[in-house]
Amino acid sequence: MIVILEPDIDKRGEDYNRLLDFLMNLPNIQVRVHEEVGAQQTVTEIYLVGDTKSLSEEEIQRLPGVDRVVRVSQPYRVLGRHKNDQRSTHFEYQGLRFGQDTLHVFAGLCAVDTPEHVERMMRALQAHGQVCTRMGAYKPRTNPYSFQGHGKACLPWVFELAGKYGIRVIAMEVTHESHIEEIDEALERAGRPTGVMLQIGTRNTQNFELLKAVGRQQEYPVLLKRGFGITLEESLNAAEYLASEGNRKVVFCLRGMKTNMGDPHRNLVDFGHVPVVKRLTRMPVCVDPSHSVGGRGRSSDGILDIFHVTAQGVIAGANMILVDFHPDPPKALVDGPQALTLEELPHFLEDVALAREAYLRRQELAARHRGSPRGGEAGGGAR
Ligand code: PEP
Ligand code: MN
Prior knowledge:
- About 30% of the residues lie in helices and about 20% in strands.
- It has about 375 residues and is of the alpha/beta class.
- It has 2 domains: about 1-70, 2-Layer Sandwich (Alpha-Beta Plaits), CATH 3.30.70; about 90-365, Alpha-Beta Barrel (TIM Barrel), CATH 3.20.20.
- Phosphoenolpyruvate binds near residues 225 and 291.
């Protein structure tokens, strides 16, 4: 059971202390307090775990300081969407709204290689009105002799260039707890010219100690990739690890499943799960067409498979796109064969906008046929 308190409740006040005292004395119930500090207000939620069946929602609802009570109906207590759950489905970071109602494109380098390539990428993004990118500094590679990423050495110039070109958020994978600190230190030293969304790769979806470490900090939001060979439920539980440690600024990323059934794509594209994740949880959902498709196949309609699956994700309501680009793909140190070129960027963005418009119209159509106003949250339109 989740007890949501009145916004900005005074933690030293009488109401709060009486309420906490009452809840702590309930038999066979553990109490966990979670505080979410937002730009406008601080929301405190109290999670009651244990034998909650016998508790009366009405009784708890009437206690001083309580705004509302939500009964947990999903294993994902914090990030799940429960019955009559009106909790928000978005968060803010770097002045941007990340929600189940918005769309952001994170086009960029799979792996940071040279300052020249990073600069060309960021210049192109700025020229096309983009404020987010992806830049891999720490690369988890199948082969130990493959390029492992420049690691912390590249962070100062990557962050400086991001600031120069107005990039506000960089999706950057971390493969070890120490990388969080390295990123934080480099950002601090550079004067925080940009922000970072910490990415947890598909190989680490169930690296529980990494999840806990990333979840313990609330400075940086997290992009969690779906595990390539585990069930959706297992991956959603992995996301819950982050939230249970305190960080609920989590975006869930579909990136295809490893199976030869997906051939000739690198992975079997799973973007049909976009609406499923959106209804099971309150997380915005990202799609990664590059690591799903893994190549530049183009069918007789003249459209690249990467464009096709991106559109499929967006038309199903995806909220973020993580996509590999490179100014000179043959020279890319990682994943060159699946990289789009800078010349393809405007085409890609226009195609995304088209699919987004179609999604919004489909949403209106569904509302019209249901005879009710559009579901979900209002505001925060498409980018
Ligand atoms: C990546 O996005 O660079 C990456 C390695 O993806 P994944 O973890 O999905 O393989
Ligand atoms: Mn890659």
